[in-house]
What we know:
80% of the residues lie in helices and 0% in strands. It has 6 helices and no strands.
Amino acid sequence: SVSSWKEAAELFSDAKNEFAKSVSKLANISADIADALDLKSEAETLRGEAKNLSSKGDAMGSSDLDTISENSSATNALIDEKLKAAEVLSDDQKASLGKAAVDYVPLMISTIGVAMKVKDTVSGVTSLGSPGFSDGRAAISAAREIPSLGPNMIRFTADSTKTGVSLLNLMNTKGVSTPDTSDLDSQLGDLMS
């Protein structure tokens, strides 16, 4: 539970910083997958967005999240299309995709953990009322940002997890060795409850 706006601001700032780093790493993994499937320009775009998001840290805002979300969705749709159309993947492609899958699962689990902290902060501030001048500028800023950016972060995490699990399952049908995703499914259930 959150006891003050000052605490909420600190928790949210830390969560945004962690989230920006995690999402940046996830975007780089998606770029690696795109690369393995010869989607070079899409991979380059995602890497640029990942670098931008990583540099933002706790200054990340909704527009940054929207941009990387749009680019990730477009690239993931192309990845999905390429995988479905592929009759056979080369051994190099299978190795690259398998490595990406192995990197993806634990990173997504930690991203869900960050989203859980965000969810706790979002629900914790509902009982705090409005911050006052004595709470400080960071608290006043957090009071404006938490109700909008917090749910966007949670939604992005849920959508990314569902897309990722779907892509891993598709990779598996193409002979790529992928890790078990049951932990992701159960953590996603916790996040959405």
